[in-house]
Specification:
The complex is a heterodimer. In chain A, 63% of the residues lie in helices and 2% in strands. By secondary structure, chain A is mainly α. The longest helix of chain A is centred in the last third of the chain and has 36 residues. In chain B, the strands form 3 sheets. In chain B, strands 1, 2, 3, 4, 5, 6 and 7 form a 7-stranded antiparallel β-sheet that branches. Chain B has a 7-stranded mixed β-sheet with strand order 8-20-19-18-9-16-17, with helices on both faces. A 6-stranded antiparallel β-sheet of chain B has the order 10-15-14-13-12-11, with helices on both faces. The chains are: A mainly alpha, B alpha+beta. Chains A and B meet through α13, α14, α16 and α18 of A and α7, α8, α11, α22 and α23 of B.
Chain lengths: 573, 688
Amino acid sequence: MNAAAMMLIGVFLGLLLLCVKPVGLYMARVFEGRPGWPLRAGASIERRIYRICGIDPEAGMGWKHYALALLMFNLLGAAAVYALQRLQVWLPLNPQKFANLAADSAFNTAVSFITNTNWQGYSGESAMSYLTQMAGLAVQNFLSAATGIVVAIALIRGLARHSAATIGNFWVDVTRATLYILLPVALLLALVLVSQGVIQNFSAYKDVTTVEARTQTLPMGPIASQESIKELGTNGGGFLNANSAHPYENPNALTNFLEMLAILIIPAGLTYTFGRMVGDTRQGWAVLAAMGILFVALLAITVHSEQQGNPLIAQLGVDQTASASQSGGNMEGKETRFGIAASALFATITTATSCGAVNAMHDSFTPLGGLVPLFQMQLGEVVFGGVGTGIYSMLIFAIVGVFIAGLMIGRTPEYLGKKIEAFEMKMSSIAILVMPFIVLTGTAIAVSVDAGRAGVANPGAHGFSEILYAFSSAGNNNGSAFAGISANTPFYNVALALTMWLGRFWPIVAVLAIAGSLAAKKRIPVSEGTMPTHGVTFVILLIGTVLLVGALTFVPALALGPVVEHLIVWKTP
Amino acid sequence: MTRRKPALFDPSLLAAAALDALRKLDPRVQWRNPVMFVVYIGSILTTALWAQALAGHGEAPAWFIFNVALWLWFTVLFANLAEALAEGRSKAQAAALRGMKQSVQAKKLANPADRTTVAQVRADELRRGDVVLIEAGDYVPADGEVIAGAASVDESAITGESAPVIRESGGDFSAVTGGTRVLSDWIIVRVTVNPGETFLDRMIAMVESARRQKTPNEIALTILLVALTLVFLLATATLLPYSLYSVAVAKSGTPITITALIALLVCLIPTTIGALLSAIGVAGMSRMLQANVIATSGRAVEAAGDVDVLLLDKTGTITLGNRQAAAFIPAAGVTEEELADASQLASLADETPEGRSIVVLAKQRFQLRERDLAALNAIFVPFSAHTRMSGVNVGARQIRKGAADAIEKQIAAFGQGFPRAVLATVQEVARRGSTPLIVSDGARALGIIELKDIVKGGIRERFGELRRMGIRTIMITGDNPLTAAAIAAEAGVDSFLAEATPEAKLKLIREHQGQGRLVAMTGDGTNDAPALAQADVAVAMNTGTQAAKEAGNMVDLDSNPTKLIEVVETGKQMLMTRGALTTFSIANDIAKYFAIIPAAFVTTYPQLNALNVMHLASPYSAILSAVIFNALIIVFLIPLALKGVRYRALGAASLLRRNLLVYGLGGILVPFAGIKLVDLGLVVTHLV
């Protein structure tokens, strides 16, 4: 890793760390019902929303009620997005007169956006009207992010409360997450992006004459408003097909830096929110430390692999060394305005969280550089993870880790004073099992049927990686793609939509069940005999659990994809 | 019952266990253990594949499939053996208990008031409510309550304690246990249980684990193990299509064989803990039994590990059963030796432990020899409830010793007042937790003998250990708060409950439970029963009443209240053993991947041989080595499962660090060495 890369990463992580406490504290206040002076104005809006929707903000919900409300809310969201896509030709704000989308593609996209996946089988600038983008996709960017956050908050409440029958009110939580957290920050970020050249208009596409005297059509649209929430809500679905590699979405190094920060700020901040709400901030820092260590280690592998370049290209006499005039390394599929470090960092961030936005083509990464994004998703999106999903998935791993290790100190395992018993283990197992189940079987089906094999562009181990990546991305609600695979086919649209749906809501229900069960339990007071869950040992234990479960599940598959690819590339004389 | 601790691999037990292991191959038995059931199915499948290979249609050489199948069957058998061994030890203990169930004749009384007309009936015909007469030499035919008479009873068969105990009607010593023997006198007993429900019957049933149910933690762990098994089932099953695809696109090699997939699956699923889990549970109960504690359920043993608060009776647990003389404090104008001399005289005929201790102290301090009362013409005045003092009359001297108010009365009878200075000393002595005994000679108060509760040696250190384990100790005593506080401070308990009544005890337990703590206590009296029933771990003394034994969830045959600490340790040990073996089992998988993955796919992608970090001889030997290691490790860990991981009184943090290092890191490293060794062995013996 060269000095410039180290500096970028150092400054980035330093700034992120500085944001964790204020952001986390603010979110804790929001969900404790006291958002503070900046947003007192929101109170009247909030009240009006509750009045119109007939919601009693004081009524608590048990976990089943909470889960049902969440599922209905998202089902309605899916129906709305589906309808907009199927009717857009007759609706306003469609200057390019884009036709209605096919049923399978619309279904895939609807599921993709409500699940916070933002897997995109379509190409934004040549298929979606402005209305569909704004009222359908961007709205779900907010609501799916809010859904993730409230599940995390419900689980945190389960840990914080004791002998309680309820875990909060879904409608209140989702309103507050949107109104006080996502909307204001997204607005601020959108303004900054516009100032840097990200476009925001409703104009028809422009035909311009290039210096070569050819005509080029430039897409237009309300991009900034969608770009900001795309990162902030770890959604990742670009307005344009090229996503954050496109200058209209991500024009310069500053916007790139801010977008990366926006992706991580809520997932990282939620660790502090967690510590704060359970009454011991050390607990939150420990979880953050585990996430941070995993992140830095994996990031180092990506940056190093990309900077090393590709030996096959080196054989052709191409200079891949870094110098003052070039960033060197493997530049295939990367934007020169970002270079190796900012592309590798972006790729690591976008797959560490469940964002999936890209500023470079992951398909063109070196085998190991591409293995990291793939492996991060397969870890279950817990290295920071998506907004909300990251912390709640990590807490599930903590529960499993504590269960095994807790036994080793000779007590019935407990986490934050809550006994981990059969019900929690059952639900944790479900939450953790679902993802490998759908990713592995999905991949198995895809490589076995013609419809699945048909879309693969690259033969050999890399083709296998592409399919595995697609299902890992969908199953973990990431949404990034290894490109190179033509996924807008009925087979992939339907298979991936199902994968996304199950990968999102099955674990959510299990997590809420755990929240409910934990909330009802008594809290055991801390003593010398209690296993501490804030020290170095716990951090190591947590990292170990995540790596072991992830590695044991996916190592055979990875061995047949990126690992063998790496060995082939580097062993070939 | 046998006191002998059965050796771990007693040859006779081993032979029986080996037979049992074969018997357990019944699918209905296997089905109960989901992890091992997968191995069982794998064994059957590979055996079928071997048969197919023999027929000439094999996917791999027949000798290879045969060896994999053979070792998979061994894996199943080793798991069965572990369980059979644990059960065998318990069965041996149960057989010893059953030996006590003698078919005895009982003398049934038609009318409890009339003990002359008896009907001879068989003991197993007695029903609850029947009344029997038991005379010297008779066996007690069933558990019951003494309603008349008193007798000395030999309970060594149950307790191992050879000194006979007194059983009499009323009070806390009225319970008799079937199988014990009356040595002298007679008692009339009302039978309290029906045949088959006696204490002995329940003990046998428990020990035989006939009614052994999975404990809550065992269930939770099983769920995790099943989940892991499913994940690995998935990871290996999907490898077949992946392999087929890879072969198709790489256009080289052959797809992975079913045999290799089954081998991989069995190596990955947590067979080590799956095989030993039930053995650990059985062994936990059996370890309790070796400590002479009968747990009425596995749940109770497990709960013992979670205990946060120990309620300990002061007398017998924290202090020696009785008070002892610690100092002579003379009144003004009296020398200490004078006081000691009078005290010794007053105590010579006093056979109570307190009296003996006074004589001993006088001898220690002033070399005062015991004198012959008869030679002195002394007349012993025994203690009476009326005067509440004792002493001797030697000629005209009337030497007495007793509580302050009793002696005050005695002195007042001589028309004298009680000296204020002595009264002040009395209060001071009481304040430091001791009992003041006043000695008077006629109208003169000579001084005070300080009787002290003697805190048991080493108990302070024991409580320190408990504190490090995160367990609070609370002393329960009937003493006044002053006395209690002084002893509590000396013994180093965390807290105490003075002037304890059964209601106060119950309230204390409920309070702690309300705060989420688990409470353990011991008790023997009927008035302890409500508190015993409320406590999470309740150890009833075997000498205690039937009510106490019914209310508790463990019975201590030795009736040694200090054993509560051992009970807690045994509970912790059981949980620790489970955790350690689970961690070890999962950590093992890393090395197994490195052995099997390159071996399984090397025909498609020869480059994968770079992952063969152990440099195993060939793909076949790699797979076989992993399978053999996986089977053998079960056998190596059987002793650990039966004996349990050693418990150390460390804080949770250091204990966790230690065990993570040993079983986590160890679990990662050991199989690398183990698999390599097996591989070397296979090469040397030309098996591959």
